[in-house]
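User
New here, help please:
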Amino acid sequence: MGMTQLIVLAVVQGLTEFLPISSSGHLVLVPSIFGWTDQGLAFDVAVHFGSLIAVCVFFRNDILALLRGTRDILTGRFGSTDAQMAWNLGLGTIPAAVVGLLLAGWIAANLRDPSVVVWTLAGYGILMAVVDRFASSARNITDIGIREALIIGCAQALALIPGTSRSGVTITAGRLLGIARQDAARFSFLLSAPVILLATLYEGVKLVTGGEPVAWDNLGLAVLVSAIVAYISIEFFMRVVSVIGLLPFAIYRLLLAGVIVYVLV
């Protein structure tokens, strides 16, 4: 992989991982436009690790609270606010972890196709706009309980299908439950951290034990670029989502689906 390809794709991944516009949709389109070959497993591991760093840095206070909550759970203090949030995020992670473990290989082999991406981009884009327009905003992140966490977690499992967008589908699920936009986004981003960590560890082990040569300096650059851009992307989204809502992102998804049809299908 050339340096230009590495930087461009790391920027694309960092920018789109946490905006509800589908990182996979862009990573299908951009290499095809430039005629680039598949970026490979090592690159995917690096940029996802960069995204994880961005989440942990931006939500560092929440992460520290979750660590305290985990400690409370381990010591039998289940009633604290931190423990409840840690418990909810743990439960919400299970559906995506199970589906990913069982079906990730099949999904990669059968659903990583431009025609699938087009339908998921457009379909979930329309759903996102409709739900955001008509859903209540009367609840906040502290109102999320076990039922809500599992519903949002099941939505996150759907994001394994390319073009869905992890943040898009989980924020939509949160909005459907009446959670205010910023709180739905905050829970969505926090929920992404364990899944990204598990996926990075799983793919990282495959990378290290695979026996293929690895350009660690290039991967380090990919991590850095992805982390910086992802942090900026999260900050932008958290600042503007309560003001502009999700409609502009839904319109963008429809436009992107049209571009993919024009270029690839």
Remarks:
- The mean pLDDT is 91.
- Residues 81-110 form the longest helix (30 residues).
